[in-house]
Amino acid sequence: MADARQDGNVQLSIRDDGRGCSQLAKGNGLNGIQSRINELRGALAFPSARNGGFVLAMTVPIKEGQTL
């Protein structure tokens, strides 16, 4: 897991080292994450992981002085 603040956004990336998948079928978990990210006016992506596995990449805007 990695996170960073950049250009008024918080970026979070979560990666596993499993086998990954060729086609993504969002279930309740991923749909729930997507819904919460949308409420925060953020973005959610599922970029390809090197050497297999699965990645969730989230970006959420923050206001100056806001804490998480």
Helix and strand topology:
Layout: E1 2-6, E2 9-16, H1 28-39, E3 43-45, E4 54-61
Antiparallel strand pairs: 1-2, 2-4, 3-4
Mean model confidence by pLDDT = 82
Roughly what percent helix?
10-25%
Structural class: alpha+beta
Distance between the termini: 16 Å
Strand order of the largest sheet: 1-2-4-3
What oligomeric state is this? single chain
- Work out the helix count: 1
pLDDT < 50 stretches: none
Shape: flat
Count of distinct structural domains: 1
Total E-strand runs: 4
Largest sheet: 4 strands, antiparallel
Strand content: 35-45%
Task: Write out key terms for the chains shown.
68 residues; flat
What does this 3D model show about the protein?
The structure is a single chain. By secondary structure, the chain is an alpha+beta fold. Strands 1-2-4-3 form a four-stranded antiparallel sheet, with helices on one face. The chain is built from one helix and four strands; from the N terminus they run E-E-H-E-E. Strand 1 and strand 2 (about 10-15) form a beta hairpin. The protein has one helix at about 30-40, and strands at about 1-5, 10-15, 45, 55-60. It has one domain. It is flat. The two termini are about 15 Å apart. The protein is about 20% helix and about 35% strand.
